[in-house]
Structures are given as structure tokens and as C-alpha cells.
Amino acid sequence: RVFVPGRLGANFRRAAMLIYSRPITVAYHANRASCASCWSACYLLLLIVLPYVLAIAMGAFWTKDAFEREQPGVRFRHEVLVEAYLADGTAIGWSTSDQLNTALGSRLRPCQLRAWPEDTDRDGKPEALQFSLKVPLDADGGER
């Protein structure tokens, strides 16, 4: 080792050996009836009780009745495609689309379709649609 003048303390620290050490703990005590203890107790009570008070005050803590009824909107868009097969396997059809009726050609069979909404509980909203379809057949041609 080289001795450096003015650095005696640094050289001494390196040469010193640690014999015993212990951590220093500092504890502060207060009476149970002190102001800090009262505030801690109030804070803990508020932390536990406040959520229950808020839930009960809002009325959603114990839900007694929760009924929700939904009713779908029933509408008929007046778009129909009818496909039928005769006894001999020939396919006939009809549609509300003029383009499709033109494409059917000789297999086009004009049908009579009636549709009406059905309101069983009389609340002004239809629950179902009823359809009546009549397909004319040529009995002389052997259609059935």
C-alpha cells in the first residue's frame, strides 16, 4: 500500500475490521385514547361502513324484483320467394321480385299471398305474422 498524505481517514477505514453491528429501530408509541388513534378508528369505520350505506341509500343493495320484458318488432317487408315441387319433380316458383319472375320463365306460377299481423294480448304490438298462400294447380295437366 502507498501512503497518501491527507487521506489518513480513507486508509484507516479500509484497514479497520467490523466486529459487531446492529440495525437501529425507532418506535413511537401513543395512548389508545389519543387524537391519532381516534382518527385511525374513524377512518377504519368509514372505510368499512360507507360502501354499505351508499349501496342501501341508492336502493340497489337487495334487489327484490327485476323483471324485464322485451318484445321483438314483427314486420313483413313484402319480399317473398315461393318454390314448390310438383308430383313429377318439376319445380315451380313465384316471387314478389319482377326480375326473379322474369328469370323463372315457364316455371312461373302466380300465387295468391295474404299476410296479416296477429296481436294476441291486444297491446297494439303484433306478436306474430300469419300467412295464407294459394298456389293454383292445373288439374287437367296432372299437377298435384
Describe this structure in a few short sentences.
The chain is of the alpha+beta class and 144 residues long. Helices cover 27% and strands 17% of the residues.
Task: Describe this protein's structure.
With 144 residues, the chain is α+β, with helices and mostly antiparallel strands. It has a domain at 81-134. 27% of the residues lie in helices and 17% in strands. It contains three helices and four strands. It has helices spanning 8-15, 35-58, 98-104, and strands at 81-85, 91-95, 112-118, 128-134. The chain has a two-stranded antiparallel ribbon with strand order 1-2. It has a two-stranded antiparallel ribbon with strand order 3-4. Strand 1 (81-85) and strand 2 form a beta hairpin. The N and C termini lie far apart (121 Å). It is a multi-pass membrane protein. Its main location: membrane. This is Transmembrane protein 231.
How large, in whole angstroms, is the Cα Rg? 46 Å
Tell me the structural class.
Answer: alpha+beta
Could you report the average pLDDT, rounded to the nearest whole number? 84
Largest sheet, strands/sense/barrel:
2 strands, antiparallel
Walk me through the topology.
Elements: H1 8-15, H2 35-58, E1 81-85, E2 91-95, H3 98-104, E3 112-118, E4 128-134
Antiparallel strand pairs: 1-2, 3-4
